[in-house]
Amino acid sequence: MAALVVQPSPTAAVQLTFPDSQSHSLPPNSTPAPQAPSDMEITSHVERNPLLDRLLILRMAATKYLGGVEAVFNYQQLERAFPRLAEHSEENLRSAHEQINDFMKKQSLVQFEAILDKRNLPKKLEELLEMCEDAERRLHEGRETQGGSLKQSSISPKIATLAAVCPKKRAEIEILRARKAQIRLENESLMASVKERHSALKKREEIGRTLMKALDERDRTLPNASLKSTIELAEELAFGAPAAV
Predict the structure, then answer these.
(1) Are 35 and 66 in contact (CB under 8 A)?
(2) pTM > 0.70
(3) Would you say the C-alpha torsion 107, 109, 114, 115 has a positive or negative sign?
(4) In the chain, at which end, N or C, are there fewer CB atoms within 10 A of the end residue's CB?
(5) CA-to-CA distance for 101 and 70, rounded, in angstroms?
(6) What does each of the 245 residues of the chain score in pLDDT, given as a tens digit?
(7) How far apart are CA 33 and CA 110, in angstroms?
(8) Phi and psi of 46, rounded to 5°?
């Protein structure tokens, strides 16, 4: 256990304790933090597998990222944050800085491995690697079958794309044409209904004008006619019944 003791004044004392990196234990059933791959290991792996292991790339990226975090969290920043500790206990502050960095790296890599295991990425990446190798093998076998060179297609990529797209576009055009014909029929039906209603309104207007004209004529000829006889005349003109004057 490392301890930092600072005495800013003769009567006061501050003690900070940090857990030793050696005493920190990993959670139960956890995977030990993997070490960063060395250049020799990477070179050996590339020679063994030209496609390179995706899992190794992920671990290298994680290690590189942690290296960047370590570069940001340097001793100078910690010294600026705790100037009095740096002045009175520089050795202990440096030890605390190393312990914090070591703790962050170990815990981050442990959590990274836990995420890989939870999502089953090692197996998925291995399957992807096998698919790539199988595709490369099939390509190599195809070249050997055709005398060392693949037969070049005489169809350009543009024509091949149009050949795949045109049938779909043609089907869409037919659907739009059918929809257009349906809308045209609906519009014709609506226009016929509007014309019919307009004709009925004009007919009613004519009947109304004829009725008003007849009523005016009756009022002039029969000024003393009763209200009942006027209503009867209106009904006769409206329904075509013979008028009884």
Answers:
(1) no
(2) no
(3) positive
(4) N
(5) 6
(6) 444 433 333 333 333 343 343 333 333 443 444 444 455 554 454 445 544 567 777 888 888 888 777 777 888 888 888 888 888 888 888 888 888 888 888 888 888 888 888 888 878 877 877 887 888 888 877 766 655 444 555 666 777 777 777 888 888 888 999 999 999 999 998 998 899 999 889 888 888 888 888 877 776 776 555 555 556 666 666 665 554 44
(7) 5
(8) -65, -40
CB 6 within 8 A of CB 89: yes
Within 13 Å, how many C-alpha atoms sit on residue 205's CB side? Answer: 6
Q: For 47, phi and psi rounded to 5 degrees?
A: -65, -35
Structure tokens at 63: 């290690």
Q: Which residue has the tokens 């014709």?
A: 188
User: What residue spans of 119-156 are helical by DSSP H?
Assistant: 121-145
| CA angle 102–105–106, rounded 5-degree value | 85
Residue 82 CA to residue 97 CA, distance in Å, equals 11
Separation of alpha carbons 229 and 139, rounded Å: 106
Distance between CA 63 and CA 55 in Å, rounded? 12
- C-alpha distances out from residue 166 to 61, 153, 155, 175, 176, Å: 45, 20, 16, 14, 15
**Per the structure block, which two tokens stand in for 197?**
């209603």
Round to whole Å and give the CA distance between 27 and 31.
9
